[in-house]
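Dear support,

I submitted the protein below through the web form. The confirmation email said the job was done, but the results page showed an empty box. After a refresh the structure appeared. I'm attaching both so you can tell me whether what I see now is the final result or a partial one.
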Amino acid sequence: MYRTKYILVLVCVVGIWSALASAQQVADAATIRALEVKWAEAYKLRQLALLSSLLDDNYVCTFEDGSVFGKFGVISYIAKPSEHVEVADMSDLKITMHAETAVVTGAYHEHGISDGKPHDYHDRFTDVWMRVRGNWKLIASHYSIPAH
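What the results page shows now:
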């Protein structure tokens, strides 16, 4: 009798804990989705302070051509007066949560002017976010040209 009650209580506790963990993952995924949108909008509008606040100090980004930049390099590039982004859209976002880390994959479209020449990029991307001292920070990004 006591064993049955013990097992029943244990099952209830595990079930409640699992439901709470699942709810937290859903909330975290929604936060990450909002941060991705915020990142794209800040990039388009060249809001450098906001962009800097979203990036971890050890952020690393690999671009389509294989070049790799850290936080300072990416911010410096965005700050160039010759760069103007008119469209920065994401689609097909998939967010996978791993405790304090989120992996985001999706499609990215950018249209604008770079060094006086128009550009129109269609990429696939992966972003990795990590909760650092209570705040979500973008720690890595990778862009690639999709195979057609």
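Response: this is the final, complete result; the empty box was a page-load delay. The helical segments are 2-44, 48-54, 71-79.
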